Amino acid sequence: MKDFLRQLRWIVLVAIGVLLGVFIVQNAAIVELQLFTWTVSSRRAFLVVTCVAIGFVIGWVFGYTTRRR
Q1: What pLDDT is attached to residue 68?
Q2: Which pLDDT score, from 0 to 100, does residue 14 have?
Q3: How far apart are CA 51 and CA 42, in angstroms?
Q4: pLDDT higher than threshold 80 for residue 9
Q5: Are 41 and 31 spatial neighbours (Cβ–Cβ below 8 Å)?
Q6: Residue 5: pLDDT above 70?
Q7: pTM of the entire predicted model
Q8: Pairwise CA distance, residues 64 & 6, whole Å
Q9: 8, 39, 43: which is closest to 23 by C-alpha?
Q10: HSE (CB half, 13 Å, CA atoms) of 27?
Q11: CA 50, 52, 54, 57 torsion-angle sign
Q12: How many angstroms separate the CA atoms of 55 and 17, rounded?
């Protein structure tokens, strides 16, 4: 059973990697992000991945502080 779960984990990780690669290739356009007077030009995929990562960190921090209480 452990071998099956280990193989399943690798299959899922490879599938996520392939999907991430396809996402990055399809969203290679340069876009501008504007916040007040601050402007950044970057690839769309990088901005989306960065926003998702920030969301995970915020969720982890708030989840961690909620669990400690």
Answers
A1: 62
A2: 92
A3: 13
A4: yes
A5: yes
A6: yes
A7: 0.57
A8: 27
A9: 43
A10: 15
A11: negative
A12: 20
Looking at residue 16, what is its pLDDT? 86
- Tell me, what amino acid is at 44? R
The alpha carbon dihedral of 8, 12, 14, 15 has a sign of positive
Residue 28 tokens read as 């290679």
Q: Which of 45, 22, 42, 47 is nearest to 32 (CA)?
A: 42
The 3-class SS string of the chain reads CHHHHHHHHHHHHHHHHHHHHHHHHHCCCEEEEEECCEEEEEEHHHHHHHHHHHHHHHHHHHHHHHHHC
pLDDT tens-place string over residues 10-53: 999 899 889 878 887 888 889 898 888 889 898 888 888 888 88
